[in-house]
Amino acid sequence: MPRPTMPRRAFLRSSAALTALGTASAVFGLDACSSGSGSSADRLVMLLPGDIPVGWDAIRGAVNDRLKADLGFTIDAQFISWTNYSNQELLKFTSGERFDQALEARWLHLDQLLSSGSLRPMDGYFADKAHPHLDATVSAKARASVTYKGHQYAVPQVNYASAITGMVIRQDLAEKYGIGSVETYEDFERYLYAVKQHDRGLIPFGLDNGYVNNTVTPQPTGLFNAHSWEDPSQFFQAAGSNAGIFAMDPRAGTTGSSRPRPFWEAPGVVETLHRIRKYNQDGILNKDVLNADVSSVRGLFGQGRYAATVGNTDGLTTTTFGAVASAVHGAAIAQVVPFAKGTAARPAATFQASNNVVINKNSAHADMVMKLQDWVSVKENHDLVSYGIEGKDWKAHGDSEFETLSKYVFPGFALCWRISLERTPVGMVDSERTWFGWAKDYGHFTTDPFTSFYFDQTPVKTNISQLASAYNQYGKPLFAGTVDVASGLSKLQSAFEHAGLDKVLDQLQTQADAYLAAAKSAR
Description:
This protein has a domain of 207 residues: Periplasmic binding protein-like II (D-Maltodextrin-Binding Protein, domain 2, 3-Layer(aba) Sandwich), CATH 3.40.190. Helix content is 38%, strand content 12%. The protein is built from 20 helices and 19 strands. The strands form 6 sheets. Strands 2-1-4-3-5-15-8 form a 7-stranded mixed sheet. A hairpin with a 3-residue loop joins strand 16 and strand 17. Helix 18 runs antiparallel to helix 19. The protein is globular.
């Protein structure tokens, strides 16, 4: 998906309860409430995040005409606003609503839906070799990462081997302050404080209430965790929360013992909490972190109000943030990735896709879902859905680049991301081109010992729910730097204890150790 939008774990990342069920949903050409009849033998119903794309009417017609001719059915999706997608999507699954497929992820409700049996296994469809285009464009390594109790439950949507959550900065300001290339955490912090000192009209770093979950604990790095910049070797487990709250033993792959512990016991974490608190007090961060949504933060960066914000190695940095060059004379952006060793780093990766297509267990049309996944794995079909009508919405530059001609934006990460099929925008900044190319290579990563481990929450689901509530109440303010570290961490620890932390840790260790033993015996 090549235009400004919210990929990967980007748009919600909160563990909010099922509240605020908004009315901003829409169906392709229909309103939300008119879609209640569900799917049929010639209509596939899917859930997608965001607003209806500009110009979708014409593109929908072209897509459905081609689909009808090729496969005998059409697509009909419910677009649900970013603000409400997490809550509404979960409600649709738990209420038994009739639809066929949805965007799911570990930063949404994937673990919960796997534990509750809400998803349909896909093993048979992968095994029947009836989807050659899908098999050719989504690697077996990526597919295997969504294996739960011996079954595959998702089609990973990937345009990289593993995406890294990093930053985008104003490179023109880095040059202005004599910093040049930001490569180490010291460089990055010096940049933030230089902005604060010299450009008082700018907020050095814009952070939203979703990516606040990425500031502290490594997955494999925390944005403001200097220790993880030096040693990006661990993925924390995120049981019941959208932040990694459990650190696993880094030697687990060889010892066979997971020895999970709460995040505050891991190296560099408490130091990071104090650093973020200082950033908040020094005016390095926006004061509305816990209320700011990712769209607003990105919009303000584009207007020149922030000097840095979160940017991933997913190929969307230039298109998402490049507008600042039009808003601010002389502005230029650069991708910053939190590895002190740069492209020589070999960070841990689970290869679990940030975004997945899953099949509702209540769907009677799983075969259609898989046929559609195979269909969008053909380049001309992928390009039509992803970029729109060629000559009207986009112009090809060779086989791998494109030029945008319209405002059409489709959430391809929720339907048709494929490493080998994605085009990059003409004018992609050099730093992004370097890192995006790097992130596509599986050889640049070290396989985490828990690569396809999914925690079955069923035995401790009440405790998990209480931990999530405690994290939202006490953890997120710590991760945003809005509360005193000593008192805030004490309150969080007490709340975790009352929520049954020890019981969850015991269950997590039992399952994780069993996973390690099974993985060892399979080698």
